[in-house]
């Protein structure tokens, strides 16, 4: 991810690590059931199969790296809600997903995470379709934070963050010192260390959001999928969170509504409208008054200072 004003890219990708998308669901009703049957599934890492003990990870074709969506489509209720979208983030970059409400951003992220199965096209990890990668192996690579986490279970913040370690642990094994370190580091990076013992249910919306990010960090992913992660955050925490993500040596796909934050923090943008990709490129290439009016129906001025474009909306 780019740090605002620097244009700097992160270094090499971190060691494998993390996270867990659930086994891709199979049509006709493609939502994959949440993680291994626990009431905490709502806050579980997307897809990590705690119960699917260690299937060997298959190797993909040489040279194919990272998470890619190739011409993916998703039909739900007789309607194509994602339609032929290709997304191939380069290693270490941050791709912003933009588009109006209902344009398909969350659905695309869920397809990338393997939470939903595409009804057309394919999502691959290092060149292998996700179903062949297996959900546990995918979970060690890909962490996803959805918009609304929930759980019926009484969990502390530390418990929630520790869920991110499940893909790395052998079934039924106790947490290791490395697990404890990863959890402590994730809590620290998200400013939640002093909330670690607090009940999840008593957290504010913004604190829950940060706890979910901490859970994803504890997964130590190489690919991070974030669905409007700044939603509940005050401006300081928005910037802190995006700075944090910018400093991670991971490839990130992030759905954002704030065009200026997208311009500040993303290397590339993909704009969706009615499920289709309508623009892709750098923020300076994509964020034009014409595009903003066509996609959002809003007039805007765009100025190009050093670093990134700045969008100013005009009254109708
Ligand atoms: N399970 C479902 N059944 C029927 N329609 C669905 C289902 N899931 C999503 N949709 C529809 O698909 C479209 C895309 O939804 P999605 O949540 O991907 O959009 P989005 O771009 O993330 O929206 P927002 O910015 O409001 O979060 C919406 O019109 C939504 O109502």
TrEMBL record:
Residues 12-36 have a biased composition (Pro residues). Keywords: ATP-binding, Nucleotide-binding, Transport. Residues 1-11 have a biased composition (Low complexity). One of its GO terms (molecular function) is ATP hydrolysis activity. Residues 67-299 form the ABC transporter domain. The keyword S-adenosyl-L-methionine does not apply. SMART domains: AAA. The keyword rRNA-binding does not apply. Residues 1-71 are annotated as: Disordered. Gene3D superfamilies: P-loop containing nucleotide triphosphate hydrolases. This is ABC transporter ATP-binding protein. It comes from Streptomyces minutiscleroticus.
């Amino acid at each position: 991810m780019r740090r605002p004003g620097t244009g700097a890219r992160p270094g090499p990708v971190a060691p494998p690590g993390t996270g867990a998308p659930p086994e891709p669901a199979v049509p006709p009703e493609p939502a994959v059931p949440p993680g291994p049957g626990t009431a905490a599934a709502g806050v579980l890492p997307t897809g990590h199969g705690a119960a699917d003990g260690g299937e060997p990870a298959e190797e993909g074709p040489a040279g194919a790296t990272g998470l890619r969506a190739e011409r993916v489509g998703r039909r739900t209720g007789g309607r194509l809600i994602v339609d032929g979208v290709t997304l191939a983030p380069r290693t270490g970059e941050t791709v912003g997903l933009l588009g109006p409400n209902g344009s398909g951003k969350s659905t695309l992220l869920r397809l990338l995470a393997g939470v939903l199965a595409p009804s057309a096209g394919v999502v691959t990890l290092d060149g292998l379709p996700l179903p062949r990668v297996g959900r546990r192996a995918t979970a060690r690579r890909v962490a996803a934070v959805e918009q609304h986490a929930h759980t019926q279970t009484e969990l502390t913040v530390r418990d929630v963050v520790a869920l991110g370690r499940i893909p790395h642990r052998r079934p039924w094994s106790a947490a290791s010192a490395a697990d404890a370190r990863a959890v402590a580091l994730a809590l620290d990076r998200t400013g939640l260390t002093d909330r670690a013992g607090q009940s999840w249910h008593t957290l504010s919306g913004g604190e829950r959001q940060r706890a979910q990010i901490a859970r994803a960090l504890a997964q130590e992913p190489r690919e991070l999928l974030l669905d409007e992660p700044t939603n509940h955050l005050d401006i300081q925490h928005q910037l802190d969170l995006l700075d944090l993500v910018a400093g991670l040596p991971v490839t990130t796909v992030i759905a954002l509504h704030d065009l200026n934050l997208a311009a500040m923090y993303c290397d590339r943008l993909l704009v969706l409208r009615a499920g289709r990709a309508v623009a892709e490129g750098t923020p300076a290439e994509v964020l034009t008054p014409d595009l903003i009016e066509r996609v959002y129906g809003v007039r805007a001025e765009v100025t190009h200072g050093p670093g990134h474009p700045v969008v100013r909306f005009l009254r109708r």
